[in-house]
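name: query_chain
kind: protein
chains: 1
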Amino acid sequence: MSGKIAYVFPGQGSQTVGMGKDLYDASDVARAVFEEADSALGFPISRVCFDGPEEDLQQTVNSQPAIMTVSVASLKAALKAAGEDGLKPDYVAGHSLGEYCALVAAEAFEFADAVRLVYERGRLMHEAGLVRPGGMAAIIGLDETCVAGICFDSGVEIANINSPAQIVVSGPKDALTKAVEIAKGMGARHAIELKVSGAFHSSLMEPVVEGMTKAISSVKFRDPKMPVVVNTSGKVASSAEEVKAELIWQLCNSVQWNRSVEFMIESGVTTFIEIGPGRVLSGLIRRIDRNVNVLHIDSIKSLHRGVHESVK
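structure:
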């Protein structure tokens, strides 16, 4: 396959009950990831992935480590299936929570430390949502300039720039309602509030910063072994110190996913492999540039198809 390869990892919202079960059953390396996560967290996150119930999996404190575990299990299974000559990325990136998975892929820290960090991240984000209530809304069909004007008029903040025409905003509930009304009045194709427990990637997440700074300071980080394109700049972070700063900065600032994908394409990436549950990033990448090749791995079936396509 000509051109460069990027691994990309999904964020919160891609979880579904039953995810990762076939990988656990069929792959020894994937099973080891689930077992390591269970041990690191002190409770069976694998059971939450496989059996739910739905309301437990949807809780931020569970969904974040669950998605990470399935993503890393998918990664390990894919690497083993591809062998030494396949699936070597030139870049890695992840959307919000997925950034932690990208850093595991880049060997910037150990998986056990990462899964504990995302559990703490989810716990603190949930608590922040109780202390400073808010939410998020997706606006589709308006560009960044238009949405910036909506933010100014309503009091919300841009949380995710996912593609040229898909932008997510965060803020207090009353401000979100106003933002949705303004967006519809400006001709947005869709403007809808999302089912989330807080105003993620906004200033309402400031209560999370102190706790995550403490948690991150207790973990040993290394310089990434491959280029990691980070959320807040859409550029490469190449040192352990840059990585730690990014993980704090992304809590209250917007995810520049569109910019990140464009940077990788401009740097020669022609194939993106989404590794983890759901296909949200695959859809976004196709909207950003329909000329790139997009593969997806989150199950045994998709693993074999993805590995076959990637080593052509």
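note: The chain has a mean pLDDT of 94.
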